[in-house]
Amino acid sequence: MPILSTRITSLNAGGGDGWEIFYKARALRTAGVPVTELTIGEPDERTDPAILTEMHRAATAGHTGYAIVPGIPALRDAIAARVTERTGVPTTRDNVLVTPGGQSALFAAHMAACNPGDAALMIEPHYVTYPGTIRAAGAIPHSIETRPEHSFFPDPAEVRRKARQTGASALLVNSPNNPTGAIYPRATLEGLAEVACDGDFWLISDEVYDTQIWEGEHLSPRALPGMAERTMVIGSLSKSHAMTGSRIGWLIAPEAAIAALIDLATNTTYGVPGYIQDAALYALTSDDALEPRVAEPFRRRRAQAQEILARQNIVGLVPSGGAMYLFLDIRATGLSGIEFADALLDTHRIAVMPGESFGPSAAGFLRVALTIPDDRFAEALTTLTGFAATLAKAA
């Protein structure tokens, strides 16, 4: 066949895509082998039946044709109202682009912020798709490592140094953070905002976990002085409303950026199906208690995990303020995150994400999703810690 473009073949920079353990676990399940899966952020409670009823109603009523590309006006208005209420930043539909999930918004933001060959900064540990998304947009990803002894918070001084060194056009931040659960303090975000202003580049803020706050408070950098005109915010209903498969998200940005991004959407996704948008509108406007209900199991299992981990001293828990994950330190076993995750799956049929999937600074850690029923979760975590203790004795 003809040669594939380097744009496609270089998305993972010649390495893996970070999902190898997940694929291995799914292959086992397909073969009929029971696996306890704690890999992806997939809520175990599926989309609320009332939302699905509205989706069905909209589809059978005929909203199955092309929907307006930027998003139906009522949904853009509802998203704008939500953002205004939660951040205090005046937001209108002209600041909103509805996208097929947060991943699409992430790609669109970097397409808007970066020219081909530009440097795009990202805080590490980072979500698995960040480097590939940046490369897909034609930019070059540059990681800024964080350290567990500093709660994986980024150092604005290090970001400033890297921005000057690379001539960066964008900085991607994620708080609450996936995979660490870190919620960046106000002082950290103010420092990052100052660096973005001084360097005159875009700050892209992935805020898809903004409804999963366990300690502290979420602050959108767009709400900081002078940042509304240089910040793009990624949002989604996947985590807040358990609508992962519906692929419905948004990008918040200055009006001129959204106007240009509508052209991108016209030439790529051509919008989101209207019946899904109708269901999203219903989800955002019909039940204020839904978001807390979706989040509560993760809060409960986090507390459950803290109790289990407190009874041993081999596996460390990185303090987390939000998101649906635990970030575990298994360096005392002498294994890498990849080695431990592979052995855990082979030995106990429990699948977790190795820290190395999220960048080198997460080596020796695991991300564990809080996404199975409480009793099964407690059993899996107890097995994991027991396995770690056995490995540590043998090391």
From TrEMBL:
Keyword Transferase: yes
Reactions listed under catalytic activity: L-aspartate + 2-oxoglutarate = oxaloacetate + L-glutamate
One GO molecular-function entry: pyridoxal phosphate binding
Protein EC: 2.6.1.-
Cofactor: pyridoxal 5'-phosphate
InterPro entries: Aminotransferase_I/II_large, AspAT/PAT-like, NHTrfase_class1_PyrdxlP-BS, PyrdxlP-dep_Trfase, PyrdxlP-dep_Trfase_major
PROSITE patterns xrefs: AA_TRANSFER_CLASS_1 (PS00105)
Domain of life the protein comes from: Bacteria
GO-annotated biological processes: amino acid metabolic process
Aminotransferase class I/classII large domain residues: 35-382
UniProt cross-references to SUPFAM superfamilies, sorted A to Z: PLP-dependent transferases
Key words of the record: Aminotransferase, Pyridoxal phosphate, Pyruvate, Transferase
Family: Belongs to the class-I pyridoxal-phosphate-dependent aminotransferase family.
Record protein name field: Aminotransferase
